[in-house]
Amino acid sequence: MDGVVNFLKPPGMTSSNVVFDLRKLYGQQRAGHLGTLDPAAAGVLPVCLGRATRLFDLLVEKDKEYRFEATFGVQTDTQDAYGAVTARNSRRVERDELEAVLPSFLGGQMQSASIYSALKVDGKKMYELARAGKEVTPKEREIRIDALELLSETGENRFLLRAVCSRGTYIRSLAESIAGRLGTVAYVPFLLRTRSGPFSIEHARTLTELEEAKTEGSLLQTLVSCEEATAFLPELALESDRAIPTKNGLETNVRNAADGFVRVYAAGEFLGIGRVNEERLQLAVHLYHRTDQ
After folding, report:
1. Is residue 292 part of a domain?
2. Is the dihedral angle over the CA atoms 96, 99, 104, 105 positive or is it negative?
3. Which of 2, 21, 38, 77 is catalytic?
4. 46 and 162 share one domain
5. How confident is the model at residue 293 (pLDDT cuts 50, 70, 90)?
């Protein structure tokens, strides 16, 4: 049971609950998700199982895609529909003026994370401290917005938008920043992650679907293999006589190979993820089948 579960998280379920349930369902001790989704949010939450947890650093840095509804004129302390209203503004936002300000948010920038985010302060999640009534100073982090577009107007002062962004971007904070640029306030009643790196919502599975697959004996087929999960990396094939030395951690000279991570093969076997540095390759993540296990 080594691979990645492309899980479709429903609203109301925490990311840690997802990991707990999938660990139990798949009978796998090693498990971890690739980026927290707030309990109120829904969508793609990839969970690595077994040896796939070794790929965490590679997969967690991939960009994310969201669809979200911004409701202007009302602000809540949690930036979503579950919080207490802290401000109101009667200004009506027009579609054309919203479209006009969106391009100004593209690119790299600093963002102040909500105190109700899952970022940790002294080992405690910020939202846990905030809900306990403790004073929390918002954290700033560098983010990147690659795409931001208006999809439709869903009601008076309500708009559906799409964003493609870097890891660590808080969509609810982005909505508040957009509102500030327009001279008003906003909150996000609907937030859906439609993609996390190579994992899209079209192929995500619910807990019910996974439980049915287990009953039918097809649970293994629900996993995205380590090889498939890293298909975005270039492939590098070695001579067959380099398979054993590479597995043993020895370097191999590779000509005309760019520096960075690659998927490594030898004699048709997928060995794992290697790192090329100045035309020298070394296996960084061992993913081949061990005959002694």
Report:
1. no
2. positive
3. 38
4. no
5. very low
- Residue 38 is a catalytic residue: yes
Number of structural domains in the chain: 3
Apex CA 90: angle with CA 84 and CA 92, to 5°? 115
Per the domain annotation, does 250 fall within a domain? Answer: yes
Residues 12 and 95 in one domain: no
Please tell me the distance from the alpha carbon of residue 219 to that of residue 107, in angstroms, as a whole number: 40
- In this model, does residue 123 exceed pLDDT 80? no
- Look at phi and psi of residue 122 and say left if phi exceeds 0, alpha if psi is from -120 to 50, else beta: left
pLDDT tens digit string along 75-121?
A: 998 899 988 899 999 999 999 999 999 999 999 999 987 766 666 66
**Residue 63 contacts residue 197 (beta carbons within 8 Å):** yes
Q: Is 291 within a domain? A: no
Amino acid in position 57: D
Instruction: Answer whether residue 110 is part of any domain.
Output: yes
One-letter amino acid of 93: V
**289 pLDDT band (50/70/90 cuts)?**
confident
Q: Does the predicted model carry a pTM greater than 0.90?
A: no
Q: Collapsing DSSP states into helix, strand and coil, what is residue 98? A: helix
Which amino acid belongs to residue 209? E
CATH of the domain at 23: 3.30.2350.10
Domain that holds residue 259: 233-286
Does the pLDDT value for residue 125 go beyond 70?
no
Strand stretches in the chain, DSSP E: 3-9, 31-33, 42-49, 64-72, 74-76, 85-88, 107-112, 120-121, 124-125, 140-155, 158-165, 186-196, 199-200, 235-238, 252-253, 260-266, 269-277, 280-286
